[in-house]
Amino acid sequence: MTNIAILGFGVVGSGIAEVIGRNELPIRRMTSDTINVKYILDKRDFPDSPYGDRVVKDLTQIVSDPEVSVVCEAMGGVHPAYEFTMACFTAGKSVVTSNKELVAKCGADLMNAAKKHGVHYLFEASVGGGIPEIRSMRTSLAMDTVLKIDGIMNGTTNYILTRMKNDGISFDEALKEAQSLGYAEANPTADVDGFDAQRKIIILSAVTTDMLASEEQVYTETMRNVSVMDMDAASRWGGTVKLIGSFRNLGDKMSLYVCPRFVSYSDPISSIDDVYNGIKLTLEMTSDVMYYGRGAGSYPTASAMVSDVVSIMTGAVKAELHMRWHKAAEDFVVPFDDLTFSYYVRTQCDSCRDAIENAKLMIGDVRELSGSPKGYAEFVTGGVKESDMKKYISSGSLGKVESLIRILD
Questions:
Q1: Measured distance CA(210)–CA(115) in Å, rounded
Q2: What is the CATH number of domain 136-294?
Q3: pTM for this entry
Q4: Measured between alpha carbons, how far is 85 from 98 in angstroms, rounded to an integer?
Q5: DSSP-derived secondary structure letter, 323
Q6: pLDDT along the chain (409 residues), means of 10
Q7: Fewer beta carbons under 10 A from the terminal one: N or C of the chain?
Q8: What amino acid positions are annotated as catalytic residues?
Q9: What whole-number distance in Å separates Cα of residue 11 and Cα of residue 19?
Q10: CATH architecture group of domain 336-407
């Protein structure tokens, strides 16, 4: 019997206990062993739960018990999750987590501490819920070079954009609906302003480069400004709008950013709707690999954490690519202003013909979009450096630019 402890008994923590209870036979078949939830650390009591008698209030009881070998950290946030994780390492206990904020901010320190104490730190559930992209990157794809990562990494924002696309409702209406359904928090900032996706692309880029970027190095743009007019324009262009987290391997550097993108219907990411996530890797030898599934929720996330526990129990973790993360130097991530994109531009203007002609004079490669609303000019560009595009807009020669959305290459 393998004894574990669960830190935090909320949606994910309670899901871990339920996944273990409902999958006793598969776990026994894979490990020739069973998993016993010996402790649950939480400030609250759970008298109606079958696990209520296992709740403790003090981490000391867990770290001092030599029978507990693995701890599942499902608390969220950085503190006290960081201190608790370190205490578990010091006590010789491996930790698995779904805590994307902690991994994105402190992953390098925590991985080094785990190695120092001869234990494991696994975090499959921190990106994409139950989608097994991290493990496959560390095993099946480990000997290939990841050139690009693009993904829908937040189900809340994808649900909002899907409703805007399919039913023509506004961002505010779709957000309220998502909140009423429990997809979005009362304070949706982490989701709609891109910070959730930001943490996830930081983690995925570190898995493939061993360099952990800081949040300040990742350009992150809100999706609050995406409108029904943008959705209509994307459809006329031949695609849709998605909030995308992106990584680019630039040899001895990388670029990282999260922002709304026009995505062509020819790209499989465009067809991923509702609360689902989709992550596409482009590799040097394998070309494109796509991951798809529910990116959050009690059971998918808990299942990924139990999978990490099983990996430790069976020793399968030893077959995975060993990661040695380092904090990325400031110049390792290329400034966003130095990157080149194609753009969709919508501008309000007295003379749409003049706006288009001015765009052609300044940018060169410009294609007017047909079917534009009266009083607006819409066009898409070829490759333009981000800093140059800002100058063109600020010059006023393009009229009053109401929308600027980068196109996914």
A1: 15
A2: 3.30.360.10
A3: 0.97
A4: 12
A5: P
A6: 98 97 96 97 96 97 98 97 98 98 98 95 96 94 96 97 97 96 94 98 97 98 98 98 98 97 98 97 97 92 97 91 90 98 95 92 96 96 98 93 97
A7: N
A8: 200
A9: 12
A10: 2-Layer Sandwich (3.30)
